[in-house]
């Protein structure tokens, strides 16, 4: 009889050893006495001897800290008339790492509702959980990618609408003009905005690829004029009480620079500032001294820590703190572009107090000349300061900070109306008080004060004057916001002369 028992016992031990080699471990938990019997490698490696039996505290030592509450609830949950239990735990390995195991058990001894002994097996399920986690992360990454694409396409749509407004508007005007000089002005505006569209589309096409060719495509252009165009594009991206400020006064300095690479650099830095500046301002400008072109971008955003500054240009890493997120171009690619232009970039920042980026490029001066359309804009801006109103004509106010858009609308209206211009919301309020226009076209995105706030304040002066919102933002939610502000109607850019005239005819008695 004893020999038979020893044989059975030996077979059972061999079976347990075989299961252990397969990462399946038999265990018995004596809840009442407070010990666990389990032939788990780490329990022996922790200096508990060769015995399979350890105290519950010793077993808890090899459980990952975040999983301890699961084991504490293990027997309590079973006391509610359950016979089988199961729990996922991470158990410490000999090398110090943790692996996932599923502990399955059955209550074998119970005193009424109190569990005394549970027996079961621990099964290695680490690979299964890791596969599931990988699939989940992949799905989340896919969803995030779709979200970024949607956001990116929305932003691109907004950026393209303003220059497209001028191309469409002036193209239509060309069909109604016979004067050669006036036609040439329209052609100049169309060409200018067409160049801007091409530049924007080129930036979009290359926005997520790192350049591998070191060839510089340097062109001659007016740096001041280029900076003004940037303000037209990026002012539309700003949400909330943030001002985008271009700090330079007019000058006609021309430079030889790779305009495409410079545009991608600005896109990276201005987009990051816009995404992470919730209040205050974003300013940018340039200085020319000591044969260097210095470009400075400042913001009052979240700022960077010292560790983030040290790592922000590493190709292998990114900035994961402080809420900064560059989804168009990484800062590492930004520095790569600058270095290809034989320049350097430096960063000064304090968490909570904003950031300052300085780009130093070698200065190559180009031919200094003012383009015909720039002369036209300067002349019109000068004329705007000395407004002469014909008493026999009604007056229309156009509040629009993009000069080309204003020029197009003025060309459509100036034969029948006094057309006066405001470059921002505050100026629109002042001009309404002074000239009492009978009709107002109001852009939304403007410096100093946006069009909706200007509309609210003008409504306090007049409940009747038609105020038509002009916007590049084709969103449904804007209709309610505009209506609440007191707007009469909305026109979405790009608009045509037919739409402009039809809107005036509809609302102007």
Model description:
Strand 4 and strand 5 form a beta hairpin. The chain is an alpha/beta fold. The longest helix is centred in the first third of the chain and has 49 residues, at 126-174. It has 17 helices and 18 strands.
CATH architecture of the largest domain: 2-Layer Sandwich
- The top level CATH class name of the largest domain: Alpha Beta
Tell me the total number of β-strands.
18
Sequence of strands across the biggest β-sheet: 3-2-1-6-5-4
Averaged pLDDT? 76
CATH T-level fold name of the largest domain: Heat Shock Protein 90
Q: Indicate the proportion of strand residues.
A: 15-25%
Q: How would you sum up the major sheet?
A: 6 strands, antiparallel
Mass-distribution shape: elongated
Number of domains: 3
Q: Could you estimate the helical fraction of the residues in percent?
A: 40-55%
CATH superfamily of the largest domain: Histidine kinase-like ATPase, C-terminal domain
Overall SS class:
alpha/beta
End-to-end separation in angstroms reads 115 Å
Counting copies of identical and different chains, the oligomeric state is single chain
The low-confidence parts are 46-50, 208-213, 315-329
Put simply, the count of helices is 17
Q: What's the alpha carbon Rg, rounded to whole Å? A: 35 Å
């Amino acid at each position: 009889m004893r020999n038979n028992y020893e044989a059975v016992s030996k077979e059972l031990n061999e079976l347990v050893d075989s299961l252990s080699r397969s990462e399946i471990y038999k265990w018995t938990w004596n809840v009442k006495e407070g010990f666990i019997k389990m032939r788990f490698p780490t329990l022996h490696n922790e200096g508990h001897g060769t015995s399979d039996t350890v105290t519950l505290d010793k077993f808890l030592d090899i459980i990952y800290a975040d999983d301890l509450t699961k084991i504490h609830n293990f027997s309590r949950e079973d006391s509610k008339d359950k016979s089988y239990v199961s729990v996922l735990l991470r158990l410490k390995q000999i090398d110090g790492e943790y692996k996932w195991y599923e502990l399955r058990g059955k209550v074998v001894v119970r005193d009424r509702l109190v569990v005394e002994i549970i027996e079961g097996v621990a099964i290695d399920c680490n690979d299964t959980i890791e596969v599931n986690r990988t699939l989940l992360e992949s799905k989340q990454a896919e969803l995030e990618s779709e979200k970024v694409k949607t956001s990116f396409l929305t932003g691109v749509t907004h950026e393209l609408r303003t220059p497209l407004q001028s191309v469409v508007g002036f193209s239509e005007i060309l069909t109604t003009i016979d004067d050669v000089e006036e036609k040439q002005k329209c052609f100049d505006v169309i060409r200018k905005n067409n160049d801007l569209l091409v530049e924007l589309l080129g930036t979009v096409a290359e926005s997520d690829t790192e350049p591998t060719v070191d060839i510089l495509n340097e062109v001659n252009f007016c740096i001041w004029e280029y900076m003004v165009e940037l303000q037209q594009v990026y002012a539309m991206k700003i949400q909330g009480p943030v001002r985008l400020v271009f700090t330079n006064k007019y000058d006609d300095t021309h430079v030889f620079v790779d305009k495409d690479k410079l545009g991608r650099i600005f896109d990276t830095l201005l987009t990051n500032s816009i995404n992470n500046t919730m209040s205050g301002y974003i300013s940018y400008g340039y200085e020319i001294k000591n044969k260097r072109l210095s470009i400075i971008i400042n913001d009052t955003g979240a700022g960077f820590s010292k560790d983030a500054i040290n790592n922000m240009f590493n190709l292998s890493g990114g900035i994961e703190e402080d809420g900064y997120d560059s989804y168009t171009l990484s800062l590492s690619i930004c520095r790569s572009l600058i270095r290809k232009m034989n320049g350097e970039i430096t960063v000064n920042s304090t968490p909570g107090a904003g950031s300052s980026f300085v780009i130093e490029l070698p200065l190559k001066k180009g031919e200094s000349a003012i383009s015909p359309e720039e002369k036209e804009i300067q002349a019109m801006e000068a004329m705007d300061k000395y407004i002469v109103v014909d008493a026999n004509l009604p007056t229309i106010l156009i509040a629009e900070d993009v000069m080309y858009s204003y020029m197009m609308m003025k060309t459509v209206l100036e034969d029948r109306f006094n057309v006066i211009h405001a470059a921002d919301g505050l100026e629109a309020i002042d001009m309404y008080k002074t000239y009492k226009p009978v009709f107002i076209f109001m852009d939304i995105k403007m410096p100093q004060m946006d069009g909706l706030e200007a509309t609210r304040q003008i409504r306090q002066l007049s409940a009747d004057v038609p105020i038509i919102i002009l916007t590049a933002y084709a969103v449904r939610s804007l209709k309610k916001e505009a209506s609440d502000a007191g707007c009469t109607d909305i026109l979405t850019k790009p608009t045509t002369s037919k739409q402009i005239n039809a809107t005036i005819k509809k609302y102007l008695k």
